[in-house]
Amino acid sequence: ERAMLTRRTVLGTGLAAGLAAPFAGIVAGHAATSGPARTIRIRPAPADVRLVPEPYGLTPTWCFNGAVPGPELRLLPGEPVRIEVENGLAEATTVHWHGLRVPNAMDGVPHLTQPPIEPGERFVYEFAAPDAGTYWYHPHMRSHEQVGRGLAGPLIVEEPSPPRVDRELVWMLDDWRLTQAARITDDFGSPRDLSHNGRVGNTVTINGRVPDAVPVRPGERLRLRLINGANARIFALDFGDQRPLVIALDGQPVTPHEPPDGLVTLGPAMRADLILDIAGTAGTRSAVIDRFYRGSDYRLVDLALDGEPLRAGPPDWPIALPSNGLPEPDVKTATRHDVVFNGGMMGGMVMQQMGAGGGTMPEPPAMRDMMMAGRMWFINGVAATGHLMEPVMTLERGRSHVIAMTNATAWHHPIHLHGHSFRVLSRNGEPTRHREWQDTVLMAPRERVEIAFVADNPGDWMFHCHILEHQAAGMMGVIRVA
Ligand code: C2O
Ligand code: CU
Known about the structure:
The chain is mainly beta and 482 residues long. The protein has helices at residues 7-12, 143-146, 191-195, 367-372, 468-472, and strands at residues 38-42, 44-49, 59-64, 73-75, 80-86, 96-98, 122-128, 133-138, 153-157, 167-176, 203-206, 214-216, 221-228, 235-238, 245-249, 252-257, 263-266, 271-277, 285-290, 298-305, 335-343, 345-346, 349-350, 377-379, 393-395, 400-407, 413-417, 422-427, 430-431, 437-438, 440-443, 448-454, 459-465, 476-481. Residues 1-32 and 353-363 have low confidence and may be disordered. The site of CU-O-CU linkage (C2O) has 10 residues, from strand 6 and strand 33. One of its GO terms (molecular function) is oxidoreductase activity.
């Protein structure tokens, strides 16, 4: 079981600050926000892990420190850390700190921000996470296979004074394509996955296990941190009898609200923090169901209510999180940019034509050649396949920018920008209700989404679909801030 040490329990048991974590278990935060950097070690390597309960066997995976997910890293805002990565894989890798606004050289993108970490080599990441929130880390090298085989872990930046709750749970969701013998299928990067909705699997895990019922106590207040670590699976979670309130998206605080249509929708890489006041009586169960894939609802887990009610009604403790103080984009004076996403299968044909504002399409090669070359998806007419990439756009540093994005495909895409969080201004011309900050925004087929942010972090930043098969098949580019 994954016991969770909090910063508070570590301090309570008198463990010293500066604790270096061993190559296993949990890395707990400490209270210092200045002074010498704490060292954390993570080692990606193959390991056999129990994802599925007996009588199934162990699953050979690639993972961090021998566990799926990797160790839960807990930091404080501004706390300097040194993260030593030793590559125990048979192939090169890197680690990306998804959603953290770190300096470009620490962003973990091979060939763009650092050389790949070759087998047996080490790389040291040094940064201080600026913003409290729920994040995660994963390789950025052949991600569709490296992440798909288990390389991912949660990264929590704690608020210095978090809102009061009875219990905090982190649920890292993942989705696997397993054989009857609980082995990961080897069909990574199949043409079908590349050109359709990615490698959607057949087995969902929470924190690396097909979950048993989760015991909860009537009346207790939970903070649930959800992380979608899947390659391609989109979750639309229905909490049934429970009434979650969303208090953060992609780590950034949002006005507390009930999820739209009662569903907590998370594309790959997206996170949500929920407040859950457990309603119902002891002895009953409350199911959490993924309703994203119509006609194939997936019963993710049951909450098993047990024990005397903790209190009569929900406590009146405040739940709004303090703002991280991100720079506010000035939409009126912002520079505007257009991005069009094309490609993918539709009616058996790879969509090649460009939408408005998308520039000129290079002479389209025959569909078969294109698929053989793995080019299925385009950003403004370009399908990235190598690692030498001309920027899709260059943003003037320090200025506000609006990017108007059009999804001209028949598929969903969670679009991720590195190095920044952005406000989601509108969808199909309608202003969003909460102008939420995100680092990954899920775009529905044919949807138009406008985002805005201050380009304050200089460097070349990846801009890509987080369905990792789409990324592998061309749906990525570089946004330069200079
Ligand atoms: Cu979660 Cu470019 O990554
Ligand atoms: Cu995509």
